[in-house]
Design brief:
heterotrimer, A mainly alpha, B mainly alpha, C mainly alpha, A: 2 domains, 0% strand, flat, B: mainly alpha, Four Helix Bundle (Hemerythrin (Met), subunit A), 72% helix
Chain lengths: 108, 205, 664
C-alpha cells in the first residue's frame, strides 16, 4: 500500500511539471490535424483499397488514446485508475466483438 | 502506512481531507469506475449501430445522408472543447478561479455549439425523410448519437453548474478536484465521439 | 463510550438549527423515529431496510411460485388463465432475481462490508441511501403493474420480438423495463460505492489478501454489476424505443435480428447469475470456518477462483443460446468456456469440503444451511455441466430440466447461503439469537421441500415437459415411473412444504423479537472484524479503528499460537468482552459521522414519476425531471455534515486520520 502511495505522489508531481498549457495546445492541434487526415482519407476509399480501414482505425485509436492518456492524465495517474477504465474498455471490446462475430459481421 | 499519507492538499476542509487506504481520492476512483461502466453502455449502442447500419431504405443510407464537412466541423468543435477543459483543470490546480471559470465557460459554449450542430444535423436528416422509425439504420443511428448528445448536454449543465458554484464559492470540498472530475466526464464524452465519428461517419457502409 | 460529535442516538432527541443550505427546511438530523430511517445514510440502517424489503419481495415471489405450482399440480389446471400464468412466472422470476436475491446480497454487503474492513461507513453514504430508495421505488413500480392493466408476461428474459407490442399489448412489459432500469441505477451506484469502499476504506494493515472472504466475493460481484448493468440498460432502452416509439430493433419483418436482444440480455444475464451466487459463496466461506474451528482451507485459492469465476463469467453467455442457430464455431467456443468455468467453481467446493475435514464441527443452523449449499449447489452445478455439452443442451433447452437446474443453483445455492447468513449474522444485527430449535426445523423443511419441488423437475424435463406451459394434459403425461402427472403432483406438494419451511423462518423472527434474552457478544466464536464491536454495532461501528495484522484478525486477537513451526496450538488469551472493553477504554475522541439528508429519497422518488410519465402521460416527465434536477443541486450544495452549531466544537488538534468519508 505504502509503495502505491509513494507512486501516486511521485506521479502527481511529474504530471504537474511535464505538461504545460502549451503542450496541451500542441497535442490538441495534432489531434485536429489527425482528424483532418481522417476526413481526407475518407474521400479516398477506392484509391487506398485494403489499407483504408486499418489506417483509419489506427488514426482513430491514436486520437482516442491521446485524449485518454494525456487529457485524462491516465499516463501519469495511479495505475488503479487505468485498471478500472481499461477493465471496462477491454470487456466492452471483447464481448461486443464476440457478439458481432456470431452475427458474421466481420466476414462481410 | 498509507493512511497517514494524506495526499489531499485541502487540509483546511476537514470534512474532506481524509485518509484512504490507497491514498487515492474516493471521488476520482468512483468517476473512473463510472467511466469504465459507460464503456459497456456505448459499446452496446455502437455495436447495435454497426449491426444495423446497412439495413436502410434504398436512397436513405449513411452514404447518402452524411454531410461529412459539417460533421467534421462539429467534431473539431468537440475536440477543441477537450483542450479548453484541460486548460480549466490546470487553472483550477493553480487555484486560479478566474481562468478556471473562463475555460469552463468556453468549454460549455463549445459543447452547446456541438449539441446545436447535432440538432441541426438531425433536423436536416429528418427533412430529407430520415425519421426515427424509417429504417433500422435510422433508429440505431439516432439512438446512438442521441445518447451521446444527451451525455454532452448533461456535461454542459455540469460545466455551467460548476462555474456558478465557483462564482458563489459554494463548492464543498476540493475545488480543483471537482473541476477535474467534470473534466474526466467531459473527455470521456469526447473520446466516445472520436469513436463515433470514425466508425459511424467515415467508414462507408 | 466515545464522545461523538453528534446528538447521541438514545439520549437526547436531535435538536438542529436551520441549515442555510435549505432555506426554510432544516436538515433531518434525527436519529430515532421514522425520520431517522427515511433520511438515514447509515449503512447499517440501509442494510436492514434492504433486507426487510427484500424479504417482503421474497414472500411475494414465493406466493407467485405457489400459484404456479397449484396450477400445475393436476392436469388441465384452472387456477390461473393462460394470460395470468404468463404474468405469474415472469414476475416470479423477476421478483426473485431482481427484488430478492440481488437486494438481499446488497443488504448483507451494506451492513457487513464496512464492518468487516473496519470502516465507519461506506465511501458515499448518501449515494448508498439513494440506491436503496431506487430499489424500493423500482420494485414497487414494477409491482403496481398488477393493478394497472396486468404485469409483464414475456418470461424473465423477455425475448424479443415476443416482447413487442403485437404479442404483448398491455403495459406490463413497459413496467418491467422501466422498473428494471430504476433498480439498475440502484445496482450501479451501489457497485461504484462498494468498490470504492473496499479499495479505499480498509482499516490500517488490512491488505487485500487479509480481507474477509465475504468482502472479497462482494467486491467481485460489484465489478460484475458495474460492467453488466450498462448492457441490460442498452437492451432495455432498445426495447422501450421499440415499444413506445415504434422503432424496429427486434422486428424481423423490418429486417432486424431478434438475436440482438438475446445477446445483449445474456451478456448481462450470465454475469448476473454469478452476481446472484457469489455473495452466497462469500457467506458460506465465512460460516464454515467459524463452525469448523479452522481457517478457511486455501484462502488465496478461494479468492482467485472467485475472481476467475467473475472473469470467465463474461465469456459464456451464448450457452443460453445454443438452440438459436448461432453457428458451430460459436457453439464450440462457448461450450468449452462453459465447461471451463466449472473448474473454479469446483475448486471452491473442494476448499469448503477441506475446511470441514478434520474440523471440530458445530451443527448450528447457519452451519447446516452452509452444508446444504455445498450439497444442493453441487447437484445444480453437475446438471449445469450437462448444459455445457451442446448436443445434450439442445434436448434440454426450454424444458423443466433447465428449471430444475437453475432452482438447484439459485435456491440450493443463493438462498441457502442467504439463510445461512441470516442465522449467522442475526445476533450481530439485532443483538438476539434466532431460535436454534426452530432453525433446525426451518432448515430440514426447506431442504426436504426444495428437493421434492425441484428434484422431480429433472424427470419432468427429460420427459419433455416444456417450461412455461400453463397446463399439461393427462393424454400426454406418459405412464409408469415417468408419469408426468405423478411427478408434477410431487413437485407441487414439495413447493408447499418449502413454503412452510420459509414461513418457519418468519415465525422464528417473530418469536425471537419477543424474547428478552440478549445474545452473547461473540456467540459463535467468530473470526472477523464485524464481531469486534457491540451487537448491534454503534452508529460509528468501532470506538477505535482496529489495526489489522492477520487474516481473521478477531480470531488472532482472541487466540495465541503457541505451536512451533507448522504445528499450531491455539490458546485463548482474551475474550470478546475484554477486547471490546479495551476498545471502549481507548475510544477515539471526535468521531465525525455524516448527517442524514433529504435528497437521496427525493431524487430516487423522481425516477418512478418519470417512468409513469413514459407509460401514461409524457407531461409527468418534466415534473420528474424538475424534481431530479432540483434534488441534484440540493445534493451537491449540501455540506457533508449538518452545520457546525449542531455539534460539539472540534478539538484544536483535530487529527485527520479519525475522519470518515462524509461525502456522496
Amino acid at each position: 500500500m505504502s509503495t502505491e502511495t509513494a507512486h501516486a505522489t511521485e506521479h502527481d508531481e511529474a504530471n504537474h511539471d511535464h505538461w504545460s498549457d502549451l503542450s496541451y495546445v500542441r497535442l490538441a492541434l495534432a489531434l485536429a490535424l489527425i482528424t483532418a487526415i481522417e476526413v481526407a482519407i475518407s474521400y479516398k476509399v477506392d484509391e487506398l483499397g485494403a489499407v483504408f480501414l486499418p489506417l483509419l482505425l489506427g488514426l482513430m485509436l491514436v486520437k482516442f488514446f491521446s485524449v485518454v492518456l494525456f487529457f485524462m492524465h491516465l499516463k501519469f495517474d495511479n495505475r488503479l485508475f487505468s485498471l478500472m477504465f481499461y477493465l471496462g474498455l477491454g470487456l466492452a471490446v471483447a464481448v461486443y466483438a464476440a457478439m458481432l462475430f456470431t452475427f458474421r459481421f466481420f466476414g462481410s | 502506512m498509507a493512511d497517514t499519507a494524506v495526499h489531499d492538499a485541502v487540509a483546511e476542509h476537514d470534512d474532506h481531507g481524509h485518509a484512504t487506504s490507497t491514498g487515492l481520492s474516493n471521488n476520482k476512483l468512483a468517476m473512473w469506475l463510472f467511466l469504465g461502466s459507460e464503456c459497456l453502455l456505448f459499446g452496446g449502442l455502437i455495436s447495435t449501430y454497426m449491426l444495423y447500419r446497412g439495413r436502410h431504405t434504398a436512397n436513405l443510407g449513411p452514404d447518402q445522408v452524411w454531410d461529412i464537412p459539417f460533421t467534421s466541423a462539429s467534431s473539431f468543435v468537440l475536440l477543441m472543447s477537450s483542450l479548453t477543459m484541460v486548460l480549466a483543470v490546470t487553472a483550477a490546480k493553480r487555484k486560479d478561479d478566474r481562468n478556471t471559470n473562463l475555460w469552463l465557460t468556453v468549454t460549455a459554449i463549445l459543447g452547446s455549439l456541438f449539441v446545436a450542430g447535432q440538432v441541426y444535423e438531425f433536423t436536416s436528416f429528418y427533412r430529407e425523410g430520415l425519421g426515427y422509425t424509417t429504417s433500422l439504420f435510422s433508429s440505431s443511428f439516432y439512438t446512438l448519437t442521441g445518447f451521446h448528445g444527451v451525455h454532452v448536454s448533461i456535461g454542459v449543465i455540469m460545466l455551467l453548474a460548476t462555474v456558478g458554484m465557483i462564482l458563489k464559492n459554494r463548492i464543498p470540498g476540493d475545488k480543483a478536484e471537482v473541476v477535474e472530475l467534470v473534466g474526466l466526464y467531459w473527455h470521456f464524452v469526447d473520446i466516445v465521439w472520436i469513436l463515433i465519428f470514425t466508425l459511424v461517419y467515415l467508414i462507408p457502409a | 463510550m466515545a464522545p461523538i460529535e453528534k446528538p447521541a442516538p438514545a439520549t437526547t432527541p436531535a435538536v438542529a438549527t436551520p441549515s442555510s443550505s435549505y432555506g426554510v427546511f432544516r436538515r433531518p438530523v434525527e436519529s430515532t423515529g421514522w425520520k431517522s430511517w427515511l433520511f438515514t445514510i447509515d449503512h447499517k440502517k440501509i442494510g436492514i431496510m434492504y433486507g426487510a424489503v427484500a424479504l417482503f419481495f421474497f414472500l411475494v415471489g414465493g406466493f407467485e411460485a405457489l400459484l404456479i405450482r397449484l396450477q400445475l399440480a393436476g392436469p388441465n389446471g384452472t387456477i390461473l388463465s393462460a394470460d395470468k400464468y404468463n404474468q405469474m412466472f415472469t414476475m416470479h422470476a423477476t421478483t426473485m432475481v431482481f427484488l430478492f436475491v440481488m437486494p438481499m446480497a446488497a443488504a448483507f454487503a451494506n451492513y457487513f462490508v464496512p464492518l468487516q474492513i473496519g470502516a465507519r461507513d461506506v465511501a458515499f453514504p448518501r449515494i448508498n441511501a439513494f440506491g436503496f430508495w431506487c430499489f424500493l421505488g423500482g420494485g414497487l413500480f414494477l409491482n403496481t403493474s398488477w393493478l394497472l392493466g396486468g404485469a409483464a408476461d414475456g418470461g424473465w428474459f423477455m425475448y424479443a420480438p415476443n416482447s413487442s407490442i403485437p404479442f404483448s399489448p398491455t403495459n406490463g412489459i413497459d413496467f418491467w423495463g422501466l422498473g428494471l432500469q430504476i433498480t439498475g441505477i440502484a445496482s450501479l451506484t451501489g457497485a461504484i460505492n462498494l468498490i470504492v469502499t473496499v479499495i479505499n476504506m480498509r482499516a490500517p494493515g488490512m491488505s487485500l489478501m487479509k480481507m474477509p472472504i465475504f468482502t472479497w466475493m462482494i467486491l467481485v460481484v460489484q465489478f460484475l454489476l458495474l460492467f453488466a448493468i450498462p448492457v441490460i440498460t442498452v437492451a432495455l432502452f432498445l426495447l422501450m424505443f421499440q415499444r413506445n416509439f415504434d422503432a424496429t430493433f427486434f422486428t424481423v419483418e423490418a429486417g432486424a435480428d431478434p438475436l440482438l436482444w438475446q445477446h445483449l440480455f445474456w451478456i448481462f444475464g450470465h454475469p448476473e447469475v454469478y452476481i446472484l451466487i457469489l455473495p452466497a459463496f462469500g457467506i458460506v466461506s465465512e460460516v464454515l470456518p467459524v463452525f469448523s474451528k479452522k481457517p478457511l482451507f486455501g484462502y488465496p485459492l478461494v479468492v482467485f477462483s472467485g475472481c476467475a469465476i467473475g472473469f470467465v463469467g463474461w465469456g459464456v453467455w451464448a450457452h443460453h443460446m445454443f438452440a438459436s442457430g448461432i453457428g458451430p464455431i460459436s457453439v464450440a467456443v462457448f461450450s468449452v468456456s462453459t465447461m471451463a468455468i466449472a473448474i473454479p467453481t469446483g475448486v471452491k467446493i473442494v476448499n469448503w469440503t477441506m475446511t470441514l475435514w478434520g474440523g471440530k464441527l458445530t451443527y448450528t443452523t447457519a452451519m447446516m444451511f452452509s452444508i446444504g449449499l455445498i450439497v444442493e449447489f453441487t447437484i445444480g452445478g453437475l446438471s449445469g455441466v450437462t448444459h455445457a455439452v451442446a448436443p445434450s443442451d439442445t434436448q434440454q433447452t426450454d424444458t423443466y430440466y433447465i428449471v430444475a437446474h437453475f432452482h438447484y443453483v439459485l435456491f440450493g445455492g443463493a438462498i441457502m447461503g442467504i439463510f445461512s447468513g441470516l442465522y449467522y449474522w442475526w445476533p450481530k444485527m439485532f443483538g438476539k439469537l434466532l431460535s436454534e430449535k426452530l432453525g433446525k426445523w426451518n432448515f430440514w423443511t426447506m431442504i426436504v421441500g426444495m428437493n421434492l419441488t425441484f428434484g422431480p423437475m429433472h424427470i419432468i424435463g427429460l420427459q419433455g415437459q416444456p417450461r412455461r406451459m400453463y397446463v399439461w394434459t393427462e393424454a400426454r403425461a406418459g405412464e409408469g415411473f415417468f408419469n408426468l402427472g405423478f411427478w408434477n403432483l410431487v413437485s407441487s406438494i414439495g413447493a408447499f412444504i418449502l413454503g412452510a419451511g420459509v414461513l418457519l423462518f418468519f415465525i422464528n423472527v417473530l418469536i425471537t423479537s419477543r424474547r428478552p434474552e440478549r445474545a452473547p457478544l461473540d456467540p459463535w466464536d467468530a473470526r472477523s472484524l464485524e464481531w469486534m464491536t457491540t451487537s448491534p454495532p454503534k452508529e460509528h461501528n468501532f470506538d477505535v479503528i482496529p489495526t489489522v495484522g492477520h487474516l481473521d484478525e478477531f480470531f488472532h486477537r482472541k487466540y495465541e499460537d503457541r505451536g512451533e513451526g507448522d504445528h499450531h496450538d491455539f490458546h485463548q488469551v482474551a475474550t470478546a468482552e475484554a477486547i471490546l472493553a479495551e476498545q471502549e477504554a481507548n475510544a477515539e475522541a471526535h468521531i465525525h459521522m455524516p448527517s442524514p439528508s433529504y435528497w437521496p429519497i427525493l431524487l430516487a422518488f423522481s425516477l418512478p414519476v418519470m417512468a409513469y410519465g413514459i407509460i401514461f402521460n409524457l407531461l409527468l416527465i418534466p415534473v420528474g425531471a424538475a424534481i431530479a434536477l432540483g434534488s441534484m443541486f440540493g445534493w451537491s450544495l449540501e455540506p457533508h455534515t449538518a452545520s457546525a452549531g449542531d455539534y460539539d466544537p472540534p478539538a484544536p488538534d483535530g487529527s485527520a486520520e479519525l475522519e470518515v468519508s462524509t461525502h456522496g
